[in-house]
Amino acid sequence: MLAAGQSTKPHMAATGQDPQAGDKPPQAPQNPPPPFQRWLDLFIITLMFLSLATLFDTRGSRSEEIPYSEFTEHLRNDQVASVTFRGDRLSGTYRVEIDQFIEFSTTLPPIEDAELLPLLVEHSVVLEADTAQQSGLMLVLLNLLPWLLIIGIFVVSSRMMRGGGKGFPGGGMFTFTKSKARLTRGEDIKVGYDDIAGLKAAKDDLGEVIDFLRHPEKYRAIGARIPKGILLIGPPGTGKTLLARATAAEAGVPFFSITGSEFVEMFVGVGASRVRDMYKQAREVAPALIFIDEIDSVGRARSSAAGLGNDEREQTLNQILAEMDGFSGDEAIVVIAATNRPDILDTALTRPGRFDRKVMLDLPQRQARLDILKVHTRKVAMSDDADLERIAAGTVGFSGADLANLVNEAALLAAREGRDRVDNSYLERARDKVVLGELRESLLNEDERRRTAYHEAGHALTAYHMPHADALRKVSIIPRGMALGFTEQMPAEDKLNYGQHYLEDRIAIMLGGRCAEQLVFDEVSSGAANDLQQATVLARHMVKEWGMNESLGPLNFDSPEQSFPGHELLGGRAYSEHTAELIDDEVSQLVLKNEARTRAVLTDRREQLDLIATALLEKESLSDKDIGALLDPATEAENSVAD
Length: 643
Ligand code: ATP
Hints:
Oligomer: single chain
Strand content: 5-15%
Radius of gyration: 40 Å
Number of strands: 14
Bound molecules: adenosine-5'-triphosphate
């Protein structure tokens, strides 16, 4: 069961509701072949097919080749029905059964058979003759066809090689070494800095690049050197691609975009030639902006990763470095690369003159989350009651992409239920779905439901009364994801640092469910396993790493690399057996101390525990307001009037 504020957030892919949604699909740079060339290619291909068809037709003819002697025998037996003379060849039909005829052909003997004609007349055979000229032409054609076929294949494939496969469906296999970068013209990118919420520092940093791309001559005149490469560093979904696209749009320059992995193929050298090709294309249309996403897939430290494909990756990286060195100050090309693993990048990439400008993109804080929600709800029909502030407060740890996805989920839910506007309930449902998982059918019997209600009420009541705890947001006994119920809190501000009192209150709240079960049912259940695990891990961190224990003092016991000689004898620990025992004792003391606090809160307020549990059994979900109204009706009523 999920205890206070422990909701884990699955990572999501961005979908819909994206300011970029109106963009044209990125197109590859294309030079369509002239119509004449296309017709010629078509003609050659048709000829090849015809040749093949004729060959098969001729070779596959059903006529049976028989010796001349056999033909004369059929003739004497009165079986031959008709014959046609064609040069030194003779073909026709002979009867095998009453109504069954077989086509045959044979070669006439070099010495004229004087008996043949009288025999044919005698047996009343129908005679025909083909002119010798036609047969010769056919023979010549038949002999030429294989050659025509070979020449055709050669011409077509060499044209494909030269033209990079353009004009052929799918581009053909000869596009292998061509850059896979997608090119979008600056004016076609429908996303600008207005569509990016937050990220102020990053936008300021890139403002200089925009000015350079717009007016390169201004910078050249004064001799200023603009960074050639900018590295965007941030967790997934924080808007790195979005920022790069918007930068190209603001500067009004062509935007080449590619991911690092698209360079690398099975064959060594392909990646490097793709890099060369991409830079060549960019130079042709400069000023331009090149965006390389996931640069770490080609740019990881050269010596660090062994294994297959290393040569190819190294060559690709070397080519990127060579191209960056090859830029002269006159070429207004800026390369923006993105990564969420700056630690593994080759130092050659980040040295001055290459990707020397680093721009950090962090997960958005509360105000930035609110702004991102506003950007993404712009294009959605929202109802007036939508409380974006509350959603922003309840989405700690969400990236911009997660928030875009949440808004889209809410819109999908509303549309599915036939609504024409997205109201707050849809936003809340979408948030719960993303944070806590899909709704699950309850398989609990009445006793288990009652136990779950008391368990969650225990968490909620402890959270409500602990002095340093975050405010309650929601309590529910509706099963979601892996949990049978959950209690959720909402910090007033995003926290980057946690005080000792706050952490102790968290341990107390985690134990609230188990304590409530013990108090009401006089036993504990296995349902608290997750709570116990989290409480123990937190207590261990406090004691071992954060110096939050008086007996052990301000020491960190979690860095084996700083250990003293001989620590291997201690199983990789950097401390003695005695200290290990002390740590175990102190961790357990810390948990037990807070369990006692929790028990005191619940025992003293048993009637409040019953109130919450009963309300949960009735309504299944309670908001912070519902709990306020239950536990402190007077204050809640005052707050409601003030609202
Ligand atoms: P990855 O590292 O996974 O490639 P990324 O950092 O490049 O991710 P983007 O692809 O730029 O992330 O972001 C995905 C989507 O998230 C964007 O298209 C946009 O809809 C939304 N988004 C992210 N950050 C912001 C923001 N600051 N303002 C508005 N929308 C944002």
